[in-house]
Design a protein that fits this description.
There is one protein chain. It contains eleven helices and no strands. With 266 residues, the chain is mostly helical. The protein is globular and about 60 Å long. The mean pLDDT is 83. Keywords: Membrane, Transmembrane, Transmembrane helix, Transport. It holds the Pfam family MFS_1.
Length: 266
């Protein structure tokens, strides 16, 4: 399965590289559509494209405390992703189900995960409160991981796995990240996915209590970190609003300014 998914990913990556334009100006869209796409980028305050490398901007990204917190947040969520993605069927089997039953449970779990992603991301986008949504749904996952670790009833343990699928925090956290720190986010994603499976050790078979505690702790840290980041961002936005906006040149949204330099960035 992993080989098939890997090959499909590579094939799709090649197609995207060949056919997907880097920015609206290079696309084959009509001029009116290009203009609308560029104006949408103006609203995001992200600019279109600038390939000039500036050491000051790199250093600013590496030392920005908001970037560091966001990377920690993504690494914590990826730790859960790595653990559950690789050992979900193993956990279900440890509850007393057969290998075939454990594999079949992946069908409703996958469907539940898909539906929860659509619902949660819609709510977060509709109200513009992604970090708050992450904070609010984490207790569901904490409850689910605690059920898998400490409730003796097999059905309740399985219900805990379903509760974990109700919390799609990784897609939500990824939407918080902006393109200029995408490389750091992907590094955090890789580190988290490496750490996650390592919590399942041979000497803890079949209950894997340390791994379940690690999942519960990760969700708890995600909740605290998301709430901390949200508080910091609210404080920063209010500080900028209180200080007022400095005058910028026309089309300053496309002048390759970082969010620290661009007071209009929110």
């Amino acid at each position: 399965m992993f080989l098939v998914c890997g090959l499909v990913t590579i094939a799709l990556g090649v197609l995207v590289l060949v056919f997907l334009p880097d920015n609206p100006m290079k696309s084959k869209l009509p001029t009116s559509s290009k203009t609308r796409a560029i104006e949408r980028l103006r609203e995001n305050k992200t600019g279109v494209e600038n390939k000039s490398f500036k050491i000051k901007q790199m250093w600013e990204a590496l030392t920005d405390y908001r970037v560091i917190i966001l990377c920690i947040l993504f690494m914590l969520s990826s730790e859960v992703n790595g653990a559950m993605g690789n050992y979900q069927a193993t956990l279900i089997k440890s509850f007393g189900y057969t290998s075939k039953q454990s594999a079949l449970f992946s069908i409703p779990l996958g469907l539940l995960g898909l539906i929860s992603i659509m619902i949660v991301t819609y709510i977060a986008g509709r109200f513009g409160q992604r970090l708050l949504v992450i904070t609010c749904i984490c207790p569901i996952a904490i409850t689910g991981s605690a059920m898998t670790a400490y409730v003796p009833v097999r059905g309740a343990k399985l219900a805990g796995i379903f509760l974990l699928e109700l919390v799609p925090i990784t897609p939500l956290i990824y939407t918080v990240a902006v393109a200029n720190i995408n490389a750091l986010i992907l590094m955090s994603f890789a580190v988290g996915n490496i750490i996650g499976p390592l919590t399942f050790t041979g000497n803890t078979v079949p209950k894997y209590i340390p791994a379940k505690i690690a999942i519960m702790a990760s969700f708890s840290c995600v909740m605290i970190t998301a709430l901390t980041l949200r508080t910091i961002l609210l404080w920063e936005n209010r500080r900028r609003d209180k200080c007022g906006l400095r005058e910028h040149a026309a089309n300053s949204d496309f002048m390759n300014m970082t969010d620290r330099k661009n007071d209009k960035f929110r």
